[in-house]
Structures are given as structure tokens and as C-alpha cells.
Amino acid sequence: MKTIQRISVLVLAAAAFTTMVGCASTATKESTGQYVDDTAITAKVKAAIFNEPTLKSAEVNVETYKRVVQLSGFVSSQADIQKATTVARGVEGVASVKNDMRMKQ
């Protein structure tokens, strides 16, 4: 009976360890919590850009990875690029902003 209990405890410990390691982040992979946080940051940045009347939000794409926001897309002017970057930096939770937006020719 003691052997069965020991085996059961070992199996449960191994399952718990596997679950913890499976949800941990690595240099190239977000943890589950980071993914949820990044999704929320992306939504907040998109909303902030949408609510900015001088920007056409459909032309600005937003992605977030480990609290770093990447903006891409095409805008009409350098001022729009600067405004979108400023708006994104103002969102709570954003660590930094990478700007990959381009001006329309």
C-alpha cells in the first residue's frame, strides 16, 4: 500500500512540475500570463489609436510581444507616424514602441 502511495505522489509531483514548466516563458516564447497581458496591451493601444481623430486606425497595425508594441502600416505623413508612436507610448503597460510604419507615396 505504501508503494502505491509513493508512486501516486511521484506521478502528481511530475504532473505539477510539467504544468509549471509548460507555462513558463523562455527567450523566444511568452508565458500564458504574458500572452494575456500582451493581448490586453494590444487592445488598449488599438483603442487609443482609434480614438485619436487625426489617425486612420485601419491603416495602423498593432502587435505586442513581452510588453513591446510594434506599429506597422501606411500613413499619410511623418506627423501621423509620430502621433501614433506617442499615443502607443502613453498606454499603461507599454515598455517600448517599435515603429515600422511607412508613409504612403
UniProtKB/TrEMBL annotation:
Q: Which residues form the signal peptide?
A: 1-24
Q: Which InterPro entries match?
A: BON_dom, Lipoprotein_DolP, Transpt-assoc_nodulatn_dom_bac
Entries under Gene3D superfamilies matching the protein = 3.30.1340.30
Q: Which residues form the BON domain?
A: 37-105
Q: Which UniProt keywords apply?
A: Signal
List, alphabetically, the Pfam families matched: BON
This chain's protein is named Osmotically-inducible protein OsmY
Q: Which organism is it from?
A: Hydrogenophaga palleronii
